[in-house]
Write a structure and sequence with these properties.
- By secondary structure, the protein is α/β, with parallel strands linked by helices.
- The protein has a single domain (13-190), classed as Glutaredoxin (3-Layer(aba) Sandwich).
- The chain is built from 5 helices and 7 strands.
- The chain has helices at residues 13-34, 79-95, 114-125, 139-143, 173-190, and strands spanning 50-52, 58-60, 68-74, 101-107, 131-133, 151-155, 161-166.
- The radius of gyration is 19 Å and the shape is globular.
């Protein structure tokens, strides 16, 4: 005989799914805080990028030669990713229009009507940083060896990968911003 024992109550489907969702979120948070391997090899040429942006314009990494480029791989369902986005927005505001630094993100969501849904999501949070749209076949994530998110890649002026960080580099917005700012300064100091 199967089922709950007399006098006990089994978990409903909703309760089971809720606990499963909590476990997944906790696992994702722990995974991002401790970091993992992944990302492109530091010192190697950055893999080429040619994708559309959320605003509908094409983006090519080759067109950014001479600038330090910060790419943050993220998704709307990822709590650690969402925690890092305000720092990315601050950095974007600081470097907006800079001929030396570009702050951008790579959204990896695979939802229906992604561009429209993502634009609403960004607007609600008042995020204005550029968003590169990952392809359905995950071309960028595969080329950049992104195994978990968030993953941040800093590319130097010469197109070489300067730094890769998997997970959150700090537990607060100020700490995340300071970490990225330091990597940008290092990449700028390297020059060509």
């Amino acid at each position: 005989m199967s089922g709950p024992r007399p006098g006990t109550r089994g978990l409903s489907l909703f309760e089971t799914l809720r606990w499963l969702a909590i476990a997944v979120v906790c696992g994702a948070l722990a995974w991002s805080l401790i970091g993992t391997s992944g990302g492109p090899e530091v010192g190697a040429p950055a893999p080429p990028i040619e994708v559309d942006t959320l605003s509908g314009t094409p983006f090519s990494l080759a067109d950014q030669k001479g600038r330090v480029v910060v790419l943050d791989f993220w998704a709307t369902w990822c709590p650690p990713c969402i925690k890092s986005l305000p720092a990315l927005e601050r950095l974007h505001a600081r470097y907006a229009g800079s001929p030396d630094v570009l702050i951008a993100s790579v959204n990896t969501d695979a939802m229906p009507d992604r561009a429209q849904a993502l634009q609403k999501w960004m607007d609600r949070r008042k995020f204005t940083f550029p968003v590169l749209l990952e392809t359905r076949s995950k071309v960028l994530s595969n080329a950049y060896r992104v195994q978990s998110i968030p993953t941040m890649v800093v590319i130097g002026r010469s197109g070489v990968v300067h730094d890769v960080h998997v997970g959150l580099p700090a537990n607060d917005i100020d700490g995340i911003e300071a970490h990225v700012e330091k990597r940008i300064a290092e990449a700028l100091a390297e020059g060509g």
